[in-house]
Amino acid sequence: MQIKATVGNWFLAAILAASLGGCFHLPNTATADTATTSLPTAPVTDATPLTTLIKERGISPLDPGSNVPLLEQAMVELGKSDKGGRFRGVTYDLTRGNTLGRDWLIQTPNMWNRPAASLAALPLHCTGCDADFRLPFCRKNAECTGAGIHCGTLDAFAARPDLAGKKLCLGQSDRVIDRWYKLIAQAVSAVDITLLAPAPDTRFLAALRSGMTMLARSGRPVVVRVLIGQYPTEGVDATAMLEELVRDARSVQGSRLTVYTAAMRSCSATPGCRSFSWNHSKILAVDGQKALVGGHNLRSSDYLDADLFTTFR
Questions:
Q1: Is 293 exposed, middle or buried (0-12, 13-18, 19+ CB in 10 A)?
Q2: Domain coordinates of the chain in residue numbers?
Q3: Considering the chain, what is the average pLDDT of its residues?
Q4: What is the architecture, at CATH level 2, of domain 1-22+116-313?
């Protein structure tokens, strides 16, 4: 198994369903507007102000009233910033023929037409709980305290031999982590994940780790790439994140799993950039065939912690 960590400017290859990134890498090319001046303009580089690029390349805003779909318009305008199409399919692209399954919408928590007081959740900090999932052990529902808390299992437990045949108390939204685990565990060749800082924690982290472990056991030659955007004042230790993900996979014999992690901020208001930019997308793309795309940050403290839910009651 190959384990690699990369920190810095690293662009993920899977940007799906026109979820467009916030920074483009531009080649050093010179353009000249001969209609208005006889002097060439300055070369277009990463430091070129966006307003200058828009003017020099003739990039237009999208027109909602046009017969051309907005996503197709976006591809045309993006192409103007990428002469030669060097980065199409690398940092931006438009996929077609996408379909949505019956369970395509993921809600955390799923509380439509239900009172907030009925929301059941378990705290992330508890005595005697499983160390990874931070959930209490149980044998039957009566052993799980709190309305709506039930005793059960998750698919993500499968990577842990010590959890075989055991059950844990589950809150209303804890099963959501299986949506990430199952997609990762079934990968054949590639898993691409983009997130926003901070890094995944506790239950979401446990699900990602279980996915990596199952890929290692499968023996399939899968490459996993994780990119986390770092906004100012919030840093991510990409090496520590890598170690967390492959903690159990490292010991798997015959593994052909390769894992990369990266944390990036493409612009930090330096003289060469003069702005701030970082990845903000939340995407899990598997084999270029399946994806979860939306607003979920993989932070258990934001979606699964009882303290958070209590705040909104």
A1: middle
A2: 1-22+116-313, 26-86
A3: 81
A4: 2-Layer Sandwich (3.30)
